[in-house]
């Protein structure tokens, strides 16, 4: 039995610049962190060496990978040519909540299967192959930040270069600053799931021709670069301003990114003392993230959003890993 684990991510700024339609022309940059909320995949050899049994939100039992309904399972198991296994998936957070669940699943699956076959694969190789599976083979109109965040983990600066290479840099801070930044972050679930593909497809199309959207995304890249520098200077309060500026730009990039519930909740939190915030993921639902540097403000924000469920979290440093093997 083998169990792999990959962390979900929280993106601070720069999201959207990791879409090929943008970074292949202008280069992109994102600052994000992984959190201690995980996707787990467990593999056990099947009693029937010709059978594949999969258990996720559904159960599938097939004799050939091409017959699998789940697109990522079907593609990756076909690529690896694996049969005679039973794989079960479990997650701390539901899909469609803006924390990169699809890419986290793909990364955890690749880590699992490489280990099962006794083959070494670096985190960069796993992230790159996860992008290949989701973007090129399955045609999802998504970016590359989620795969790299799930593979590498930690607080990182990702630079997406026009030739496709992704530069990964850890953001080094004093441990007290890191702990305080974590304390100052609040995350609330809006209760609404979203489809990232529809929003990102529109965003991708606009980045191919609309100068206004292109210039706005260039500003997101600059925000990511500025935030990296300020965090490395232990200026953690810069995160609040960055989240606010990022959200004001992001909400203009495509229809469906925001909605009345999100806008109302955001305004309530800001009025209660948040220094900044944003909706995580492509938009439309999922989690709202806020930054407040005083405990009294954090308590007022909680009181101002009684209809939303707070999801407490800690920052993660591990990236994808094998947590059990027997």
Number of helices: 11
Order of helices and strands: EHEEEHEHHHEEHEHHHHEEHEE
* Biggest sheet statistics: 8 strands, mixed
- Backbone shape: globular
**Helical amount:** 40-55%
What is the CA-atom radius of gyration, in angstroms?
20 Å
Q: Could you tell me the mean pLDDT?
A: 94
Instruction: State the low-pLDDT regions, or none.
Output: none
Proportion in β-strands:
15-25%
- By helix and strand content, what is the structural category? alpha+beta
How far is the N terminus from the C terminus? 5 Å
Number of strands: 12
Describe it for me?
Strands 1, 2, 3, 4, 5, 6, 7 and 12 form an 8-stranded mixed beta sheet that branches. The chain contains 11 helices and 12 strands. A hairpin with a 3-residue loop joins strand 3 and strand 4. It is of the alpha+beta class. Helix 8 packs antiparallel against helix 9.
Give me some keywords for this one.
single chain, 326 residues, alpha+beta, eight-stranded mixed beta sheet, four-stranded antiparallel beta sheet, 41% helix, globular
Layout: helices, strands, pairs:
Blueprint (H helix, E strand, L loop, with lengths): L1 E12 L6 H7 L1 E18 L6 E4 L3 E4 L8 H10 L4 E7 L9 H16 L6 H15 L7 H8 L2 E6 L5 E5 L4 H9 L1 E5 L6 H12 L3 H22 L5 H13 L9 H13 L3 E4 L7 E5 L3 H10 L4 E2 L10 E5 L1
Parallel strand pairs: 3-5
Antiparallel strand pairs: 1-2, 1-12, 2-5, 2-6, 3-4, 6-7, 8-10, 8-11, 9-10
Helix pairs in contact: 2-3, 3-4, 3-5, 4-5, 8-9, 10-11
């Amino acid at each position: 039995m083998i169990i792999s684990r990959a962390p979900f991510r929280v993106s601070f700024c720069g999201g959207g610049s990791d879409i090929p339609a943008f970074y292949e022309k202008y280069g992109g940059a994102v600052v994000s962190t992984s959190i201690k909320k995980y996707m787990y995949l467990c593999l056990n050899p099947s009693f029937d060496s010709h059978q594949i049994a999969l258990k996720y939100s559904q159960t599938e039992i097939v004799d050939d990978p091409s017959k699998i309904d789940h697109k990522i399972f079907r593609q990756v198991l076909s690529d690896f040519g694996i049969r005679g296994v039973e794989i079960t998936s479990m997650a701390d957070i539901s899909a469609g909540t803006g924390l990169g669940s699809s890419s986290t699943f793909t990364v955890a699956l690749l880590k699992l299967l490489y280990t099962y076959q006794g083959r070494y694969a670096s985190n960069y190789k796993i992230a790159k192959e996860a992008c290949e599976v989701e973007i090129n083979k399955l045609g999802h109109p998504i970016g590359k930040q989620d795969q790299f965040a799930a593979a590498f983990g930690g607080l990182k600066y990702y630079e997406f270069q026009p030739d496709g290479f992704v530069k990964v840099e850890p953001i080094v801070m004093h441990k007290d600053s890191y702990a305080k930044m974590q304390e100052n972050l609040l995350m609330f679930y809006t209760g609404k799931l979203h489809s990232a593909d529809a929003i990102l497809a529109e965003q991708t199309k606009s980045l191919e021709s609309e100068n206004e959207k292109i210039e706005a995304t260039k500003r997101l890249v600059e925000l990511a670069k500025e935030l990296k520098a300020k965090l490395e200077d232990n200026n953690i309060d810069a995160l609040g301003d960055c989240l606010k500026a990022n959200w004001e730009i992001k909400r203009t990039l495509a229809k469906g990114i925001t909605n009345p519930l999100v806008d109302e909740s955001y305004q309530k939190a800001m009025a209660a003392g948040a220094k900044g915030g944003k909706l995580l993921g492509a938009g439309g639902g999922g989690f709202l993230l806020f930054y407040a540097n005083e405990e009294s403000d954090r308590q007022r924000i909680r009181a101002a959003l009684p209809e939303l469920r707070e999801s407490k979290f800690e920052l993660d440093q591990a990236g994808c890993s094998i947590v059990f093997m027997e």
